Amino acid sequence: MSSQAATVDVLEDSNYLAIKRGFWSWFTTTDHKRIGILYLMAILMSFLLGGFFALMIRAELLLPGSQLVTAATYSKLFTMHGAIMVFLVVIPGIPAALGNFMVPLMLGAPSLAFPRLNLTSFYLYLSGALLLILSLFLGGVDTGWTLYTPHSTTTDTAVLSAVAGAFLLGFSSIFTGLNMIVTIHKFKPKGMSWFKTPIFVWGIYATSVVHILATPVLGLTMALLFLERIVGIGIFDPALGGDPLLFQHFFWFYAHPAVYIMVLPAMAAMTEIITTFAKKTLFGYSYVVYSSIGLALLSFLVWGHHMFVSGQSPLANMIFSALTFVAAIPSAVIMFHWIATLYKSDIHLDSPMIYALMFILLFAIGALTGIFLGALNTSVHLHDTYFVVAYFHYTMMGAGLIGFFGALHYWWPKMTGRMYAEKPAKIMAVIVFFSFNLAFIPQFVMGARGMPRRNFDYDPRFELLHQTSSLGAFIMGVTLFLILLNLVISLKAGKKAPANPWGGTTLEWQTSSPPPLYNFPVGQPIRLPDLYEYESLVQDNETGGWSYKEDAASET
Amino acid sequence: MFRNLITVLLFTVFAFAAGQVATTQPATAGTDEAAAAAKADGENPDAADTADAYPFTDLAPDSYWMPAKGTGDTTDHVDWMFYTILGLAAFCFLAISIVVLYLVWRYRHRDGHKAESSAKNNPTLEVVWTVIPAIICVFIFVGGWKGYLSMTTAPGDAMQIEVSAGVESKWAFTYNKGEETLETAELHVPVDRAVKLKMRSKDVVHSFSVPSFRKKQDVVPGRYSYLWFEADTPGVYRVYCAEYCGDSHSQMKTQVVVHKSGGYEKWLNAEFKKGETDCLNFEGQEQTDCFIAQGKEIYMAKGCIGCHTLDGVAGAGPSFKGIWGETREFTDGTSGVVDEDYIRESIFEPMVKIRTGFGPVMPSFEGKLTDKDIDALNNWLKTL
């Protein structure tokens, strides 16, 4: 291993970032790591735009009536906030950016199975994103991200370019999912059986299965919507003989599994973080795997709970309500495994672990408030109110996005070779936790009292609750920006990252930070550490890096 | 910095605590007031319809978590489920938080502390933490399903009111009385009577939502949607559109007025009477502008326009231009001033006084026009 460490030093200037420079070396790259970084930059820029829209919404809602914008602009703001955050940020966040980077590394592989298809996926994402953002310049879209017909087929806003964008983004996801599935099947190294595969790889695998099965339905729905608008084929608009509920079924058949596309990889990343920072083997590994796969499959059977008051039959409502409760159980089981892993552990409270603990609590609130929406009679009362808004922000943002930020802090040293300032990262993570709750708990109360969602104007009785919510959102918005700034600053000012800064046992930590072009030193066998076994790892007090006892001994 | 954090933390705790207070105090404060007001009305016949006075501003106040209650069984069932789940969720969340925080504190990394080995899995534990949530889920599912069944199944004798939803026209409610219909912008219903709404949309998807009744139903174009309720507390409740329907979505709201016993029939009769002239304001006074316009409508609709012009050129009968207050001569040699009595007589008994220069050709409109119609015509003729 000492020879491997020496090789790593030699490779210092030939890591994937340094080996080639210039615009074209990035935009024609087939290196999964560089494509991951490209995704990351695009996703973070989209996040800033979507976040800006969110703060505009919260500023408008500080008082009833019109404050900053008109009702028409407000409709466009929440539509673009939702569409950007869902399609451009949270869905690709972990799988396309971090998954792209980490999955081959975790498998000890030099690349994804189809490197050029991977670049194609990125360009599809970029084109889709640009089309979506183009719709802003064509006057915006006022349909909500759900694009319900016949409003979306009859409104005179720029629906076409947004729909075309969603279509391309869907294919980007499908290609990435296909790439991941083939890679995971074919590139697993000798000695890594399915049940010795890191949970993150399992999470990406489950997500990719959902991607390739559900996303084609989104593609078809967008294509039909597009055709309906330009040639009036009459699939969804009753004026042309179509059925608006058909659209809702199609849409949610994709969009409900999409919730799991957002949450599953985050759960998997949190699992990695919790076991690594607790220095303790994951409790009940196989049950976590089965629960993740179960969750992915069940996600296809519950779309109807988005349509409890749509006019769907009471029998269908009963079945979907029952299935929703079935799907709730694996989430709870996975959470219990995280908590049980902490037992008799040795918890290092570094910033990724702070995020993971936040994730457990926010995910718990999301899951528990989901019960209100699974139970039929309370669901009817709460449907389409701010209660739902608060609930899905807990799952999609509190879990999906906070999980993404945690995973980003976890893998940042590996991706960039730099350590960020730890203390500000921790403090700001805690501020995000409290401001997040400050922003969304009042929305539960408003929703239970009947405040409908997507409302530009509201009853004065909700004023204080809205203002509290906005205050939380502003604090959170500023803090999230500072968190990203802290990461960016580390690129110039950060300490050099050791190969294994957190003491992880998965393969990406067994190569240098940042990794060489082909991920591992060429021509040397890759040693496969025991997954999630931390006893023989020791920390070097000088560099902060972790290594295996026998290696540390042989070096001195 | 830490002070700010503590403030935020305190608020978070407060929000949960406030929710818990609400769970232990059933939300009856608002409904008590409304009920007391309704009772007072009943005892004082002079104030009988104060609950029906326009505009309806006295909406019952909400509790911390839930809107004022408007329907008996449905509200109680939904609220019971809501507070049960809230209690359960709060308990689970606190339990999870305490366990996580305790474990983090107990096993935090410090000098000399190391992870100890323990079982890597435990099938008994797996069964326990799968089965217990499953049992809880079964109970909540069954509770929600039973409550939902009763809130969707309308009794056979429910009174039907038609609802139309539209982006431009907002909400419109149509009541039937024999063959006549009446359309209003607010929904009026009697207390303690099952009401079934038959709803249709003129354009996009809307959703009829009354938080106080704990009910909501999407109104989808191309099909009828139904929603029923039985209000048990007289009062005024908010109606929202819950499905985003365009830029004016937040303006698509109205109210439902639950009349106390007997009040609904009174209101309905008064509305139908108003419908006959359409010219009464809400205090029952005649509105001049509306009356004049109605006079012209009658002139057009009843055929007067065929013989009587408005431009001064005589047709089969004299023109109406500038006629009011003028003195006219008749074929029998007498003369008279054009006033309200003369107009009335000419319409009902046209052969009594025939203008010089015209033939006896006008039919009688006795029984075809009402007194109100004559008044409207007179008002209009004065303006010509």
N- to C-terminal separation of chain B?
Answer: 78 Å
What name does CATH use for the topology of chain A? Answer: Cytochrome C Oxidase, Chain A
The helicity of chain B comes to 25-40%
Total strand segments of chain B: 12
SSE string of chain B, helix = H, strand = E? HHHHEEEEEEEEEEHHEEHH
For CATH, the homologous superfamily of chain A is named as Cytochrome c oxidase-like, subunit I domain
CATH fold topology of the largest domain in chain B: Immunoglobulin-like
Summed over residues and divided by their number, the pLDDT of chain A gives a mean of 93
**Strand percentage of chain B:** 15-25%
Succession of helices and strands of chain A: HHHHHHHHHHHHHHEHHEEEH
> What is the count of helical runs of chain A?
17
Total of helices of chain B? 8
Please explain how this structure is put together.
The complex is a heterodimer of chains A (556) and B (384). With 556 residues, chain A is mainly alpha-helical. Chain A has a single domain (2-555), classed as Cytochrome c oxidase-like, subunit I domain (Cytochrome C Oxidase, Chain A, Up-down Bundle), CATH 1.20.210.10. Chain A contains 17 helices and four strands. Chain A is globular and about 75 Å long. Mean pLDDT of chain A is 93; it is low at 1-10. Chain B is α+β, with helices and mostly antiparallel strands and 384 residues long. Mean pLDDT of chain B is 80; it is low at 1-8 and 18-57. The interface between A and B is large, with 100 and 92 residues.
